[in-house]
Amino acid sequence: MTSWFFHPYYQQPVANAADQTSWQFQVRAATPADFTGIAQIIAESFHSQKGLWGWAFPLLRLGIYEDLRHRLASPSPHHVCLVAVDATAAGANNVVGTVELGVRFSDSWTHISRSFSYLSNLAVHPKYRRHGVASGLLISCEQVSLDWGFQDLYLHVLENNHQARQLYFKLGYRVHKVESHWNPFLLSRSRQIFLHKHLNTNSNM
Questions:
Q1: Which pairing describes strands 152-158 and 116-124: parallel, antiparallel, or unpaired?
Q2: Looking at CB atoms within 10 Å, which of 85, 106, 119, 171 has the fewest?
Q3: What string of H, E and C letters represents the secondary structure of the chain?
Q4: 205 residues of the chain, pLDDT tens digit each
Q5: Measured between alpha carbons, how far is 37 from 35 in angstroms, rounded to an integer?
Q6: What is the rounded distance in angstroms from the CA atom of residue 25 to the CA atom of residue 124?
Q7: How far apart are CA 163 and CA 119, in angstroms?
């Protein structure tokens, strides 16, 4: 049975069934030294390195790096980028997953009349997927959100991203709103689903 400990957020020992090795994951706030690893993981998760656009992958990765560096240059009390690192000796604290949490203001599309905490850019290195890294990052975001005084957490997921949707539903997220295809030129694009989870302040995370 695995367990998590925060340092300062979250930590989990995970057994890899494939090779029977043990990984120790730790979730913490990102530092500038992590930006290269974060950019690589996000680029790999959301952009293909194959086909005609493969040549553009280094440029996309650089753009993600510069955007991240710019956004995190001025610390905000209600914005954090978390990373999961492989804390084992072999991992040498390599970044294996990342997520961002911030605060958004009410708007007409979401039908939320107050500020709310919003999760984005969840990504895990392919080698470390299906080992609890994404779940650990999400649960860490829940604790941070509660620390900020927000009991509701929201995120977007693409309708055709069945694996991500399954994870979110398993962790208690529910559909708040589904994007409508108002533009006929976007009919081939997967719709976005706006998910919501009400956080229990009495839960033991």
A1: parallel
A2: 106
A3: CCCCCCCCCEEEEEEECCCCEEEEEEEEECCHHHHHHHHHHHHHHHCCCCHHHHHHHHHHHHHHHHHHHHHCCCCCCCEEEEEEEECCCCCCCEEEEEEEEEEECCECCCCECCCEEEEEEEEECHHHCCCCHHHHHHHHHHHHHHHHCCCEEEEEEECCCHHHHHHHHHCCCEEEEECCCCCHHHCCCCCEEEEEEECCCCCCC
A4: 333 334 444 455 444 434 434 568 899 999 999 999 999 999 988 877 777 667 788 888 999 999 999 988 887 889 999 999 988 756 567 899 999 999 998 766 666 768 899 999 999 999 898 889 999 999 999 999 999 999 999 999 999 899 999 999 999 999 998 876 555 455 546 789 999 999 987 654 4
A5: 5
A6: 12
A7: 17
**Tokens describing residue 167:** 């994870």
pTM of the model: 0.81
Which residue is it, tokens 């007409």? 108
Q: Give the domains, in start order, of the chain with CATH numbers.
A: 10-198 (3.40.630.30)
